[in-house]
Structure formats: structure tokens, C-alpha cells
Amino acid sequence: MSTRIAIIGAGWYGCHLANLLSKLSFDIKLFEKSDSVFNGSSGTNQNRLHQGYHYPRSHRTRIQSRDGYIRFIERYPTLSKKIENNVYVIPRYYSSLDFQTYKIIMASAGLEFTDVTQSIDYLNGIEGALRCEERLILTDKAKQYFTDKLQHCLVLNKEVSLTDIRCGEIDGETFDYFIDCTWGRLSDFKRELFFEKTIQLNYRVRPGASFSSALTFVDGDLFSLFPTENDGMYTLTHVSHTPVSVFSNPDEFDHEVSEEIVTQCRSSMERDMQRHFAQFPEYFEYQGYDISMKTKVRDDSDDRSCYIERDGNVIKVLSGKIDTIFYASEKVLSILTEQETAEL
Predict the structure, then answer these.
(1) What is the pLDDT of residue 32?
(2) Residue 83, SS3?
(3) Are 258 and 274 in contact (CB under 8 A)?
(4) How far apart are CA 241 and CA 172, in angstroms?
(5) How many domains does the chain contain in total?
(6) Are residues 134 and 87 in contact, defined by beta-carbon separation less than 8 angstroms?
(7) In terms of DSSP bridges, do strands 213-217 and 85-91 run parallel, antiparallel, or are they unpaired?
(8) b/e per residue, 292-310, with b = 16+ CB within 10 A?
(9) In degrees to the nearest 10, what's the CA dihedral of 173, 174, 177, 179?
């Protein structure tokens, strides 16, 4: 008899695990409380497939992202596309590290880059800039891909409770394992977590203007201008101004935000952007915003790597990056196969 596994949460991690474990002959049910997959943070973010350039302070995140990047392209070749001019910038005075140190950290991680400092003439007050390879995740294609692949096991509009898990069954169906991919919304973690309501601003390249780069300023209280899968559309996020509220209980989250807060966030982000990219208003026009929730580990190293915890028959998944889905699946498989071996 196949091992029966309930996966809760149909974001990137839940869908990837359900897809993989189904192919390995586990009996899978994937439960999602909303009416579609990727309806939470997996569908509302900058959709960057990282290599690790974003995380000079967290070696663990950097290495997991680097390795996951390659595997993602191999496993899901049609679900991302290359960004032609992806640039990381170290601003003068506002970064927590200097340009030479940043280059050394990235080189020591085996990450390739080209120094393009001299050719980025439209930016002001920068110490250096690197061009490197990263990709844009095609979220709409990914949603359709997993919706089609997981028809046999996907259960939408079903919210699973902690009581269901403790009872070992959902709607009368008994399961051997529960994999919690809700990012701390359902199960507790050993690590201290906190939750952020975040705002992501949307911009369109103005008619007649030409702009095709991704700009990420590191490391510190800085910002990122990143393309979307819709031509000419970009998102703007900021380390300080993207989080609009912080809370310890995920049940406190809602999608409401006042126009006053939106105006303040927009003003602050655009001000900081124009400090280094003075022509930003000439190239871009504001289009609106999106709200989502992020789960983070309370850690000074900016750790966004993947952690897997086990509590009896409950396997809990926590990660801040899409590219670490393969690290997660390896750890989950290790737990499942170790248990099966022990029972023989």
C-alpha cells in the first residue's frame, strides 16, 4: 500500500513536492484554501530566480540559491526566461559593504559576473555595478503547468486546520504524513518567525521611452527595480518601505492598506530611486500596487534559505526563495525514505 501524504498549501513548494512525490508513487493529496494555485506569495512577488547575488550576508542562502538556479532551469525549462541586462549596484555611502568586498564574496561562491561600472552612465552616486545572469520566473505559465499536472490530486477551496492534522485525517481521509507548506500559518517552527504585510509597486515604461534592465541595489536599506512577464511592466520594492506592517500572528494579515500608506511608500521609494536614477520619472509611470505576506526568520544575517523540520508525522517547510525547492524536496524525501526503511 502506498504511503498517503497530505500537502497543505499549493504555492511553489506544495506544487513542486506534489508533482515529484506523485511520480515516485506516493499517494498524494494537495490541499489549497483558495480557488487556484499560487494564490498567495508565490503569485505576488518579484518572481526572480536567484543565483545568490542578493544575499552577501547569508552564505547558506547564497549557496542554496546558486545550486537551485541550475536545477530549476533543468527541471522546469519553460517556466523562466533570461533577463538580458541584470545589474547589481553598490551605491556610494548607502551600502553596508564596499564594491571590492561584494565582488570577493560573489567570486568565492563561484558566481560569475562582469564589472560594468564604467558603462552604467545613467546612474548617480554609485561605487560599482555588476552584470550577472538571473532569470524571471513566468508565474502565469507555472500556474497553468501545475494546475494541469496536478489535476489528479489537487483539492481547491479546502482550508486544513491544525485539528485535522492532529486527528490524522482530512474530511474522513487518513494520511500517513502531512507536509505543511503554509510558511508558519499552520504549524509552529523552532526558529523565531515574524510576518510582514508587504507592498509591491507596479510601473510601466512610458510610451517612447526605452528601458530593459533589472536594477538591484545592495546591501542594506535599498531597493530593486525588476521586470515582470508583461512587456514594459516593472515592480519596485524596498527593504524598508516594502514592509508596511509586522506581526507575530499570521492570522492578523489582510490585504487592506490605506491610501495614505500607499502614498508614503511610493514617495519614499521613488525618492530613493531618484537619488541614483534621476531620470526614473521620465522612464516610468506608476500603475498601482500589490499586497502580500512574507514569512521571515528573525536573523541578523538576512537568512532566506530553506529549513525543513519534522514533528512526528508532520514535515514543515520554510523558505524565502523559490530556487530552494530542490533542497526542500531532497530533505523531505530523506525523511520519507528513512522512515520507510526503518519500518521494513
Answers:
(1) 97
(2) coil
(3) no
(4) 45
(5) 2
(6) no
(7) parallel
(8) bbbbbbeeeebbbbbbbbe
(9) 20
pLDDT of residue 341: 58
164 three-state secondary structure = helix
Quote the cell numbers at residue 69: 538556479
Please check whether residue 131 is in contact with residue 112, taking contact to mean a CB–CB distance below 8 angstroms: no
- Closest to 216 in 3D by CA, of 90, 57, 65, 43: 90
d(CA 42, CA 16): 12
Cα-Cα end-to-end distance for the chain: 13
183 membership: H or E segment, kind and range: none
From 299, 298, 272, 273, select the one nearest 284 (Cα to Cα): 273
- What's the one-letter identity of residue 98? D
Candidates 274, 284, 291, 152; CA nearest to 217 is 274
Instruction: Name the DSSP class of 79.
Output: S
- Give the range of the structural domain holding residue 115, as residue numbers without chain letter: 84-132+192-298
Whether residue 186 is found in the same domain as residue 196 = no
Per-residue pLDDT tens digits for 233-289: 999 999 999 999 999 888 888 889 999 999 999 999 999 999 999 999 999 999 999
**Which residue type does 35 have?**
D
Residue with cell string 526558529: 191
Whether 19 contacts 150, CB under 8 Å: yes
pTM of the model as a whole: 0.91
Over the chain, what is the mean pLDDT? 93
Residue 159 lies in a domain: yes
Q: Where are the alpha helices (DSSP H) in the chain?
A: 12-23, 59-75, 99-108, 139-149, 162-167, 259-276, 280-283, 325-343
Closest CA to 42 of 181, 161, 162: 181
Tens digits of residue pLDDT in 279-320: 999 999 999 999 998 888 887 667 778 889 999 999 999 887
Same domain, 294 and 229: yes
